[in-house]
Structure to design on (536 residues):
């Protein structure tokens, strides 16, 4: 399990060279796709075969007429090397092979055609050899579903220990020991975990030369090695830190950085968002919605004695502002509570531009004990953009799916991919700079609000041997998170063109401060045509 830039491809190349020269055998090398297998053959294997005398004598040049060799098939005395793509089941199910090499296994499709996991398919080709060898090398992906991480987990987990030039103590280089001053990558250095000495890239060659692989778990047939870019002779620590700052701008690029630079799996929501971190960034924008807000949605959670409602404002890039959080107490079985909700949802939000924004869409959870009451409420209010939703707790579901109508009221009920929504929200809560996806919170929100918003985390659970990512509550109350899920679903249902709306709203002249009765343009002119989401 490796990062990029540590010579993984060259190691695989050398293994091929070794077996061709010293211990000839049938070899199968798999790349994620057929195209990558061809590229690998041309750019990596061919130069080695050409420039290494002992190999060029053994593997005939494919250009010579009688070689029988092609780009993806090389014969040599005592064996052959076949290269294949994990996306092509035909190329995996060939003759028995003794040596199976899997490059970048985490980038393989989950199934080669209908045949199943490509890595296992290739591995099966070698089962008849007593002296078979499987080598797999990859940068990891998401924790819980990463193939290389699961193989490394079962191995003896060797790590590369390097001695400190000052105190001589051996240690594994870890990102947590990299330090820098004032967010300036050029100041990056390493701090010895034993003596606190400051180490720089100048110390690296000696440390690498004197390092050794040490197993951290007992050996049970699988030798596992982990190495990160911190060790790379070709990447200086300041460059690594520069990459970190660049990647940190969005959860998506940061995930790639963790995989490819640290060579570690990405814990999706594993490191839960800290309530305290969010609490610290509260801001004050007054009673009117910030001018970036062009659409307002609401999410309603139904509890036994109350309704909880989050009203959110949305701008370009789905940057959002928590405009209001309201709890209405009452009995969901009685009309009075729903009447109060009705008037609450009819209220408008005044924007700093001087426009009054309606709640353009609201989603109400119908999954609890009061399904019929929710249906009853939503039945006559679809024209106002008020919809019943039903949460589905399954991975990889669309955030909002196609509505069903198989209920007594023939009501349009929207299935909601709750796990997907939570992934989106937690990804966005980790964004630390205002801009696309950023969540703004007003000073009025209390600690409880943030604790509920961050009340869940994703963990890996095993079902019949396969790993699955699941959301679990870390505290009992999580209504704020649910309301945020529903308000996001309402935005997705509406799917407004936020850039277009922003351009339209910015063209409206701003009200003069002394003008106490601002003109009140009707919002209907620019909210998305209802037909878009009311049509069947
Ligand atoms: Zn030291």
């Amino acid at each position: 399990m490796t990062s990029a830039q540590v010579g993984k491809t060259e190691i695989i190349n050398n293994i091929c060279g070794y077996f061709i020269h010293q211990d000839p055998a049938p070899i199968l090398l798999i790349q994620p796709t057929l195209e990558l297998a061809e590229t690998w053959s041309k750019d990596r294997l061919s130069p080695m075969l050409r420039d290494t005398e002992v190999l060029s004598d053994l593997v005939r040049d494919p250009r010579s007429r009688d070689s029988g060799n092609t780009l993806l098939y090389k014969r040599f005395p005592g064996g052959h090397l076949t290269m294949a793509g994990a996306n092509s089941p035909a190329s995996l199910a060939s003759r028995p092979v003794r040596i199976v090499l899997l490059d970048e296994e985490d980038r393989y499709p989950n199934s080669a055609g209908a045949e199943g996991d490509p890595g296992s398919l290739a591995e099966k080709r070698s089962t008849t050899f007593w002296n078979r060898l499987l080598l797999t090398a990859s940068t990891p992906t998401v924790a819980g579903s990463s193939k290389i991480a699961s193989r490394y987990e079962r191995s003896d987990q060797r790590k590369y220990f390097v001695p400190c030039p000052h105190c001589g103590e051996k240690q594994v280089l870890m990102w947590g020991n990299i330090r820098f001053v004032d967010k300036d990558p050029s100041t990056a250095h390493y701090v010895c975990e034993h003596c606190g000495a400051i180490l720089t890239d100048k110390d690296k060659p000696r440390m690498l030369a004197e390092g050794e692989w040490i197993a951290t778990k007992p050996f049970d047939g699988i030798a596992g090695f982990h190495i990160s870019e911190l060790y790379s002779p070709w990447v200086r620590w300041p460059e690594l830190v520069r990459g970190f700052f660049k990647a940190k701008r969005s959860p998506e690029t940061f995930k790639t950085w963790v995989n490819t630079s640290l060579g570690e799996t990405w814990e999706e929501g594993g490191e839960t968002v800290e309530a305290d971190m969010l609490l610290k960034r509260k801001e004050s924008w007054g009673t009117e919605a910030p001018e970036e807000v062009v659409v307002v949605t609401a999410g309603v959670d139904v509890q036994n004695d109350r309704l909880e409602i989050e009203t959110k404002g949305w701008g370009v890039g789905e940057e959002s502002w928590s405009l209001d959080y309201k709890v209405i107490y009452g009995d969901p079985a009685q009309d009075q509570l729903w009447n109060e909700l009705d008037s609450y949802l009819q209220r408008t939000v005044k924007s700093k531009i001087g426009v009054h924004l309606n709640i353009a869409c609201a989603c109400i959870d119908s999954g609890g004990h009061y399904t019929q009451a929710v249906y009853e409420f939503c039945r006559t209010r679809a024209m106002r953009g008020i919809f019943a939703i039903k949460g589905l707790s399954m991975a990889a579901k669309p955030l909002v799916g196609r509505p069903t109508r198989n209920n007594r009221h023939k009501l349009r009920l929207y299935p909601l991919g709750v796990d997907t929504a939570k992934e989106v929200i937690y990804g966005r809560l980790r964004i630390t700079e205002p801009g696309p996806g950023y969540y703004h919170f007003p000073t009025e929100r209390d600690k409880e609000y943030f604790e509920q918003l961050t009340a869940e985390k994703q963990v890996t659970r095993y079902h019949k041997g396969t790993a699955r990512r699941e959301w679990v509550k870390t505290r009992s109350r999580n209504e704020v998170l649910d309301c945020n899920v529903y308000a996001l679903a309402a935005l997705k249902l509406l799917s407004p063109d936020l850039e277009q709306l922003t351009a339209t709203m910015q063209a409206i002249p701003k009200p003069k401060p002394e003008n106490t009765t601002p003109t009140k343009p009707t919002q209907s002119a620019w909210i998305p045509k209802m037909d878009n989401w009311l049509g069947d």
